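Below is how a single chain appears once it has passed through the pipeline. First comes the sequence as given, then the structure the pipeline wrote out for it. We keep one example in the README because the format questions we get most often are answered faster by looking than by reading.
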Amino acid sequence: MAFDDPWSNFLMDALSLLGYVKISSLRMQGLLLLIFVKYCHIPFIRDIKSSYTRSGLYGYWGNKGGVAIRLSLYGHMICFLNCHLPAHMENANQRLDTFEKILEMQQFPGTKSPSILDHDVLFWFGDLNFRIESHGIHFIREAIDGKRLHLLWDKDQLNIAKKKEKFLEGFEEGSLNFKPTYKFDLNSDLYDTSGKKRKPAWTDRILWRIKNVSHSSEKDTLATEQPIKVILENYSSHMTYSISDHKPLSGTFTLEYKKLDCKPMVTIQPEGVWSADHDVIVRYSTAEEFPSSSWDWIGLYKVGFRNPNDYMMYLWVKDDEIGFGEDFTQVYISAEEIPVQGGEFILCYYSNKMQSIAGISQPFQVQQSKTSQRLQTTHENFSTGNNTPNDISSHEYF
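Resulting structure:
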């Protein structure tokens, strides 16, 4: 269910340049959910779990359904749920039934937030497939062209359902101040011109829900009652993309909360100067409640790594321990394991029981090996000699 695909690789390449690391992913056929986190937050991301529900072909096929990843962020339980619900105008009730089934069936192991609605914050998004009722295609298109989108909001099936269905209570969404994102001719900005001429609709949506919030009209009262606050900064579609019959949608959120988990489970750092010319030492310390395991390992990563599997080398913590202090442990790394070219690196401690990175060091320099420097100098002297333009060494083949 979880593997790297072209979208994952593309986003990892792009976001790693900005300091983001992919910490979890889940795919079910066309449904893909990726979680990226900046370095500074990684040690405070814990209890990562995933779940999925198939709803296509009576529950046997994954073309419809939902995939979810949940995690603890500084002690607050956050869940991300990506859904693809049944299509077509007349299937509004089937969409609602499917979503209610997903909420009921998706369970996470453990007693902390076992179901989706138990989380402190739930983000629900995807191709939810809700349509615009009652209005004809010409009225809808004229409202869009005349920038009178508010005339369509009351007939949006999801807006209607939110007022009636108990299980949708508490879900919030930004204003639909962007054009409906479906259905377009491929490689164009034209709504469906095929023989079916489907009515435009806001099928693609992003909603959120805060657990046990009293929806008071007093903003100050609401702010003091909420342990975590979700602020929508931007909610818009992107009409310049035309590779699909849907236009992509994005939402930018700010989360305000008190940090309940303020200290990392593991503090890790390199000792002394690191070089491939000699053996090196890693020092780490753990919190009292840290669930250590003989399967824990430490990885050495280049700054800009994309995911926890991008290590340059790794070692099993228990196998390579060489020293203990009152509040720290030392681990030995052979010089043969250190990258000879040097560069800027990060150490990460991966917890087997937590299934996540429990500690991360500050970036540090590894000096280039003197042997590598001599080889590089020899190569440069050779390359700058009296070579003719036709010599292989004069071309950038290396």
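The radius of gyration is 26 Å.

See the next section for the split statistics.
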